[in-house]
């Protein structure tokens, strides 16, 4: 590195130029002015002459290397300290180019700032350069160039060049910077140095014509490292981190040994058990994938740490892309997301960044963050799908299915947002809204058609049972709407109901005692704990649609599914439960379910989910026309 700091700006506007050093082109001679035109001495002139003599003496005797330059950057005079620094006698330096002695032309930015001072457009240049001393060692110097007062008679404009040896200060700062920018445990570059290097690499790759213009990153996290710290202590944990760092460094060095196209790898510890391998001028995803696999293979070998034999694995997020248009923050976000995918997919693996998968994640995040406000904005609506008696073909009830009319993504079905609502807790508020709206609608149908009341079935998430007073909510809504409890059915998934104890079981029992029917949704896909089933306050089993889809045509029967459904129906009836089959799509399936003894069916054979007014039309027609 040739440059550490550059400044081509004045210390302050309107700075007073430096002192005059007239007639320093000859160390001991006299100028034309002194020989021919000097006026008769007076006391004041004698004082001025003495003062000028002092300046000249200070210039030549000073330990600071100095030279006087003209506007062209040529040396007019140099003191012995400057000659000693560059390895030449002061008189030999006259008329030479000062920039050649101080390395000012090596960096375009420094050279531009230097020319600005020479041309009078800037008051000062101060920069740090590394020079080669005549005895062979390098010297770090601070070079300053600033104007002097013009020659009184000739008006010639001159510059003072001063060069201060700052090697000791530079070395101290370098040591302090190394401590500041490196991790004390692993001695790897730390997060600050990593981001500094990453930003520099992105900037260089975007403009350097010689490179590939691409950048790659492997972002890894040790699986289960917290358990090592918790069980064996932080000392062993630190030793493990140091050993991991050594193996990562060897992986990077091994890749660089394969050729110049694999050079430019940086290994850094970003914090905790997180490490990063930065690949500058990467050649494509294959290079990064190979590096990530080598890292996994290296870390799979056991670690021997002071008598402790440990095995660890890592999850790695891999990102490789063009540097143009990429920011350090964006690259790290992509790597962090990909690392999360690697852990989500099972750990001990590397995963490549997938823009499509990331877009899906971003959509999920956008949906999750707007769920709660969407309830207040009235973006949700309900559709209803009939539950039809297989014996008489008449609608006995409807299931309320929520839809989200999203202003950006259009109408979304429940499988797009219910899981998100359960994750962030919005399901409690949303579930309460669905329950209230469905009960209001069912009461309206009851009042309009008192001879044919329809029950309404509402899905309830297990989190609603835990995070809210579901019993009080149901009781309050029924009282407010006037809907009889027998016309309300609550559906909970099998995994939520089976094994329920404590508060959930008490809530289900209280609802059942109130007269509300409890149904187990998607029965047969969860625990299927039949022994526990008899102890639950359940009224209805809803068989999962996968069983019904197994009811193929008579030409291609699946006797196993039919036997299972037949056994489940018989068991449910012995327990006093009714059975509803989901996903009924053909008359043949409906007929076979009816022969087995299934009570009700639900599916596209009867109707897709429809708006409330279509259900009202169904009731007014007195049957179940195709909706």
TrEMBL record:
NCBIfam families in alphabetical order: GGDEF, sensory_box
PANTHER family reported for this sequence: BIOFILM ARCHITECTURE MAINTENANCE PROTEIN MBAA (PTHR44757:SF2), DIGUANYLATE CYCLASE DGCP (PTHR44757)
Highest taxon of source: Bacteria
Annotated region (Disordered), positions in chain: 1-49
Entry protein name: GGDEF domain-containing protein
Entries under PROSITE patterns matching the protein: EAL (PS50883), GGDEF (PS50887), PAS (PS50112)
All residue ranges annotated as the EAL domain in the record: 364-623
Pfam families: EAL, GGDEF, PAS_4
GGDEF domain segment(s): 213-355
Residue ranges constituting the PAS domain according to the UniProt record: 66-94
